[in-house]
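Final report, closing paragraph on structural work. Over the funding period we assembled a curated collection of sequence-structure pairs, and we close with a single example.
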Amino acid sequence: MNILKQKTTILKNKFFKSKYTIGNISLTIPPNYALPRYQQKFKLYDRFLPFLVKHLKSNGIIIDVGANIGDTTLALIQNCENPIYAIEPSSYFYSFLEKNINSLDFTSRNRIRLFKKLIGSGTINGSLNHTKKGTASINPENLNNISEFISLDSLIEPSTEVNLLKVDTDGFDFDVLLSAKEIIIRDRPILFWENEIIDDFQISGFKQLYQFLAENGYNNVCIFDNYGNIITIENDFKTLENINQYLFSMKKCNCTRTFYYVDVLAFTEKESQVFKPIQEYKEDNIKNSFN
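Its predicted structure, as stored:
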């Protein structure tokens, strides 16, 4: 029986794809990594940010929190001239991130700084757990081996201007963004985060984040579903709170899921030019995905 299982495992691994191409770059991916399947099935999945950064000014940095194996960083580096700070706390995923960045040409590699850090405000305790879908996130119920957090404000030099702050930390994005209050007040960067609601503390955590952002001029909110499709473009945070309640009720009441979380793009009047790439993405990419 053990021999049979071993042969089956070898056979499965034989057909497992260890490489995935993003743009012109081939990256090494872990076994059963979901991104290739998602992007094949959902044509808009993770497609917006590479489109957005083509329109960024090149005088500030992009921060990628929850960089995982570097798929977003590699997509962005091909579409902008900005330096990128890629931050990933998981030793497992960081090893892939490091390998993928080191495989780049010198010019591209020199534009990327890697950080193996767990970002947060320090108000949440827990340990870093790995999930089946190929990510790592904090489990606040597991207080064994509590992970050490560092705020983005502490990590990023005050003299460094931030143009875009992307966060993907599986339900803890609000805490990462709240750890960057000084950066947000100082630079008013474009923000893009995964807005996942699966527990009560996330409802209150995101509400606190929305209040802070609204007080600091983030009056433009664009909401995408988790498949990359735009739900609605011109909103305030009240709309987002209503969507959060909808997401939360689907999970708590075991309803049929229409989508599982939303991605949020938020920006101030200082970055009002962002409306142009949003509209172009909506008109061109979404239209072309049906051709």
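The longest strand covers residues 162-167. Residues 250 and 256 are 7 Å apart (CA to CA). We thank the funder for supporting this effort.
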